[in-house]
Amino acid sequence: MRLSPRHPRYASLKVRHALAEAHRHGLVVPEGLIAQGRGEAFDYLLGERTTPGARRAERAAAEWLLAARHPVVSVNGNVAALAAREVASLARVVPGLDVEVNLFHRTGPRARRVAAALRAAGVRRVLGVRPTATIPRLPSDRAMVDRRGILDADVCLVPLEDGDRAEALRAVGKRVISIDLNPLSRTSRTADLPIVDELRRALTEMARQVVQRRRRSRPPRFTPFDRRAALAEALERIGTGLMRAAARRPTARPRGPASPRRPRGTHGRTRRRP
């Protein structure tokens, strides 16, 4: 498929094409395509850019990852298809950050494909291909984790929607950082530190913030984060954008001069001059 950089939705079309290709190769399931469409709709409403509130959340998330004893980023098919390079970049700058495959629609071949995509992008060690433990009270394949990874982690970065897992991870004492464009999702409302931003933008900004913080002499710490205020700010931004859009009146199309009407006689026939 040829995509013109001049197309007004070029970036969006590239993402859709990448996901469609990943689906054809068994990396992404059809449900993942639906989830991407839902996220893109919220990105429209947020202006398709990182908001000031999201940037503050990403700054706090970088601090938490550096303060963690054992941070882990969880990767599903969509994350591997869209942001494997960004995950690899974050893993390079965060000391001790593990990368683990964790899938809702799990098969052995699909888990291996996700791991292969991560390794090809530069991730040196990928966990979770052969699970060795389970998360309690999580009735799906998401419960299958690596004992050396998510089970041992104190901070879990969970990109994209998964409310059940976010709740289960918090229930066993993990700090959960989520990346989800939907501020109304259960993932965003459950996470300790919800980031309402597009996946690649969020990971890129977090990596940049990590590099900046590692240059400081002050040791990192778990800075308190008001998740309710962060979600309220995202919703307010969406509401404000919708109100502004509704207030814009479409420009009226200019009308040409009216054509003279021909006089008509009875039965709609044109009158003849005597």
What does this structure look like?
The protein has 274 residues and is α/β, with parallel strands linked by helices. It has a domain at 52-235: Rossmann fold (3-Layer(aba) Sandwich), CATH 3.40.50. The protein is built from 9 helices and 8 strands. The strands form 2 sheets. Strands 3-2-1-6-7-8 form a 6-stranded parallel beta sheet, sandwiched between helices. Strands 4-5 form a two-stranded antiparallel sheet. Strand 2 (98-101), helix 5 and strand 3 form a beta-alpha-beta unit. The protein is globular and about 70 Å long. The termini are far apart.
**DSSP strand tally:** 8
Strand order of the largest sheet: 3-2-1-6-7-8
H/E series, N to C? HHHEHEHEEEEHEHEHH
CATH topology name of the domain at 52-235:
Rossmann fold
Helix content: 40-55%
Strand content bin: 5-15%
Mean pLDDT, nearest integer?
Answer: 86
The radius of gyration computed from the alpha-carbon positions, rounded to a whole number of angstroms, is: 25 Å
Distance from N terminus to C terminus (CA atoms, Å) equals 69 Å
What overall form do the CA principal axes indicate?
globular
Question: Any guess at the CATH architecture of the domain at 52-235?
Answer: 3-Layer(aba) Sandwich
What structural class do the secondary elements suggest?
A: alpha/beta
- Count of alpha and pi helical runs: 9
CATH class of the domain at 52-235 equals Alpha Beta
User: Spans of 5+ residues with little confidence (pLDDT < 50)?
Assistant: none
CATH superfamily of the domain at 52-235: Phosphopantoate/pantothenate synthetase
Largest sheet: 6 strands, parallel
